[in-house]
Amino acid sequence: MHDNDNLTLVSLNRAAEMTSLSRSMLNRYRAEGRFPKAVSLGEKRVAFVAAEVRAWISDRIAARAA
Fold first, then answer.
1. DSSP characters for the chain?
2. Does residue 48 contact residue 9 with C-beta atoms inside 8 Å?
3. Could you tell me if 4 and 12 are in contact, meaning their C-beta atoms sit under 8 angstroms apart?
4. Overall pTM surpassing 0.90 (yes/no)
5. Distance linking the first and last C-alpha atoms of the chain
6. pLDDT tens per residue, range 14-54
C-alpha cells in the first residue's frame, strides 16, 4: 500500500479503471454493498479512498486462490 493512500481520493472513473469494471457495474456493486463506500464531494460528485479500492482489488486476487 502506498503511504498516502488513506488520504488520496480517486474518482469514479479512476476506480473503474483500477478495477477493470465499467462504471455501471461499479455502481451496481456499490448499491449491493460489495464495493467500498464513496466519499461525497458535492451533490453529484463522489470519490473513493485509494487504499480501500486497492484493498478491494487485493481481496479479489486472494479469493481466486481459495
1. --TTGGG-EEEHHHHHHHHT--HHHHHHHHHTT-SPPPEEEETTEEEEEHHHHHHHHHHHHHHTT-
2. yes
3. no
4. no
5. 22
6. 999 999 999 999 999 999 999 999 999 999 999 999 999 99
